[in-house]
Design goal:
alpha/beta, two-stranded antiparallel ribbon
Length: 176
């Protein structure tokens, strides 16, 4: 139980990549973290790209980055939906500004861009959003996981084991 006493927000919106939502939530719980599923609306069922449902525990409008040690943003098409909700963007931007662990996989880079979290940072993500990340001021590299300060990024569901190892290690030691 390496993360006992830690709280993590896993963001959710429709069309999330099912594995990228569920794998982090379950893996973090396995390590003892309290995982809160945060969506634009509380107690709403959101459906993944492959139809798997996930119910939100909290609304982004009613929560604060102060309540969490880390924020995880799954990929799929959900990040494009998430960044349309100002309170979702504010949650990520605020957590980043407070040097909390921010983790994004696949298309999560879209949300990280909107939250102002990638400028001057080295990141990875799904190859199709490379131009978006570079144009937002990031240094894009093609690796299974990249840790730059408090920011952890990965490319796709195949990278989930490395992604989760990096998140757990960073949460244990704290960002530099």
């Amino acid at each position: 139980m390496r993360l006992k006493g830690k709280r993590v927000a896993v963001l959710i919106e429709n069309l999330y990549e099912d594995l990228e939502g569920w794998y982090p939530a379950l893996r973090l719980r396995e390590e003892g973290a309290e995982v809160v599923i945060v969506g634009p609306e509380k107690d709403k069922v959101y459906h993944g790209k492959h139809g798997y449902p996930m119910r939100s525990d909290a609304s982004s409008r009613e929560t604060s980055s102060d309540a969490f040690d880390a924020v995880v943003v799954p990929g799929g098409y959900a990040p494009d939906m998430m960044r349309r909700e100002p309170s979702m963007v504010d949650l990520v931007a605020s957590a980043c500004a407070k040097n909390k662990v921010i983790a994004g996989i696949c298309h999560a880079g879209w949300m990280l861009i909107s939250a102002g979290a990638v400028r001057g940072r080295t990141v990875t993500g799904f190859f199709a959003i490379k131009d978006d990340l570079v144009n937002a001021g990031a240094n894009f590299v093609d690796r299974e996981v990249v840790v730059d300060g408090n920011l952890v990024t990965s490319r796709n569901p195949n990278d989930l084991p490395a992604f989760m190892r990096a998140i757990i290690e960073l949460m244990e030691k704290g960002p530099e």
